[in-house]
Amino acid sequence: MVKPRLGQHFLIDSSVAQREVTYAGITKNDIVLEIGPGKGIITCLLAKYAKQVIAIEIDKRLVEQLHSIVPTNVTLICQDALSVDFHSLPRFTKIVSNLPFEISSPIMFKFLQSDFSVAVLIFQKDFAERLVANPRTKEYSRLTVGVSYKACCRILETVPRDCFSPKPRVDSSIVEIIPHKKPRFTVDDEQFFFELTKQLFNHRRKKIRYTIRSLYGNIDQLPYLEKRVEELTPEQIGELSDQLLPYA
After folding, report:
1. Measured CA angle at 176 (ends 78, 189), to 5 deg
2. Is the pLDDT confidence value at 1 over 80?
3. Span 93-108, mean pLDDT?
4. What pLDDT was estimated at residue 7?
5. What is the pTM of this model?
6. H helices within the chain, ranges in order?
7. How far apart (Å, rounded) are the C-alpha atoms in residues 128 and 123?
8. Rg of the chain taking only CA atoms, in angstroms
9. For the chain, what are the domain ranges?
10. Other C-beta atoms within 10 Å of 71: how many?
């Protein structure tokens, strides 16, 4: 029985699962992290190619079922992935998952705090489009800026909703994420940069001047005050962050 509160939409198309694993280029040197293995369609494929698979599943009932089908090189962890300390796990090299929709954003930022070479992930299509969006589009968001600072993302293919059970309301996408060896651009204070980005996108239709005035007072000697945040590139938001920091 599916638990809707857990965002369970199980991948049932084996050809999609095979392509996702192939995109990741798994070898016998890889330790692969999988979040939300569900019924194991991706897990069992990963186990064929990888040295080890670490699969984290919150649903105890599914973990019991998986124990009977997965090979010995799969380590099953029955926990909420958001609460797991990834640094306590064996050092994984790649991430491959059909992610529960409800945790897409927080788990994405959690991944980017880890050290891995590539992630190949299935997201809802609208979420995937936000990851790769350009300024001046409705998809461009805080998520776009935060992720592009840490990694390069590209959509590999669209996955029709019929490939899942139960069938979700929207299609999905397979996304490749490759972390930058160091951030795409430098900022003086990362925490301040991320918080400013959040505040600006909370008021994305306002001119930047008015959002900053409400937070820090009237500061005129800053760039981009007459623009809206959705008009700025991630680098320009970083520049604004550095110049605002002394006033914060």
Report:
1. 85
2. no
3. 95
4. 56
5. 0.94
6. 14-23, 41-49, 60-67, 104-111, 125-131, 142-150, 190-202, 208-216, 234-244
7. 6
8. 20
9. 4-179, 190-247
10. 11
CATH number of the domain at 4-179, please?
Answer: 3.40.50.150
Closest CA to 164 of 26, 20, 45, 9: 9
Residue whose entry in the numeric block shows the structure tokens 């959509």:
155
Q: Is 84 exposed, middle or buried (0-12, 13-18, 19+ CB in 10 A)?
A: middle
Provide, rounded to the nearest whole percent, the portion of the chain with pLDDT above 70: 97
Mean pLDDT of 173-187: 96
What is residue 25's predicted lDDT score, i.e. its pLDDT?
A: 98
- Residue 191 is encoded by which pair of tokens? 């925490």
Element (H, E) at 52: strand 52-56
Interior angle at CA 66, CA 60 and CA 68, nearest 5: 120
Q: What is the DSSP letter of 132?
A: T
Burial class (CB within 10 angstroms; exposed 0-12, middle 13-18, buried 19+) of 206: middle
DSSP single-letter state for residue 207:
B
Name all contacts of 201-210 with Cβ < 8 Å and 24+ positions apart.
201/141, 201/142, 201/145, 201/229, 201/230, 203/229, 204/228, 204/229, 204/230, 208/232, 208/240
8 A C-beta contact, residue 140 and residue 133: yes
Q: In Å, how far from its chain's centre is CA 10?
A: 18
Report in angstroms the alpha-carbon separations of 158 from 20, 162, 182, 218, 245: 11, 12, 29, 46, 41
Q: What is the pLDDT of residue 8?
A: 75
